[in-house]
Fold this protein.
Amino acid sequence: MSPLPNFIIDLEEQFPTLQAAPSIEAVIHWQADSGKKLEPEALKAELTKRLPDYPLLQTQQDVENEATGAPDGSPEIFHRTQWSGFRLQDGQNHHVAAFTLNGVAFSRLQPYEEWAIFQNEALRFWRIYMELAEPTVIQRLGVRYINRIPLEASEQPSKYLSTVPASPPGLDLTTEFFFHQDTYPVPGYPYSINWVRTIQLAGADPTNGQALIVDIDVVTSNILLQLGQVDQETLSQRLQEMRWLKNKVFFSCMTSYALERFGATL
């Protein structure tokens, strides 16, 4: 077996700043089971007190469906709901967070802001989760960006993506839809990259037209982060490395036309 190629995450590398970033949602997700029993009313009171700038708070329920056979042979379906946490939203509908029994997911919606602000606000939620839920291990850490690029009727994805799925040789056809997913382990680092490109078909709403979706999800792989051994500096370093991987994929797959349209500046 040939050796794995050398791979270096260079946090000094500069990427363009996008004045009109196509990101519709950026997410930082910690999967970390609560280390103690959380009571809904007590947790709600704490979140309300600690996060007054997130006034919209909704209960989240997990739904389980179970099918069994009745004595007459007909199927019986049972639905069981169980409280799983809360969904919080700020008054401007820019930030949304899921505070659950098994972790925290923090999202920035459109318009996207700079990474430093996004990361700091996500870490704020993570610190509150650590104080209230007392997890001991981070089972999974993820940084995900979902980008939506509207396509005009005559535009092809190749105008924005440097590589796109090609039609079969000998068939000069226009692509109407595709779904392409790649997963890459990162040599020498505990990360993997899930990269999806797909076409979102136009909906019934005229404002919801055809679009190109580019979804980049960088996650930790085969590693448990023991919280007693991971300080905030180490966690921030992990997030910076994952962001670099996301940026490397995004800017490598975009055409010069796309970057110009997004208002790229160095």
In short: The chain has a mean pLDDT of 89.
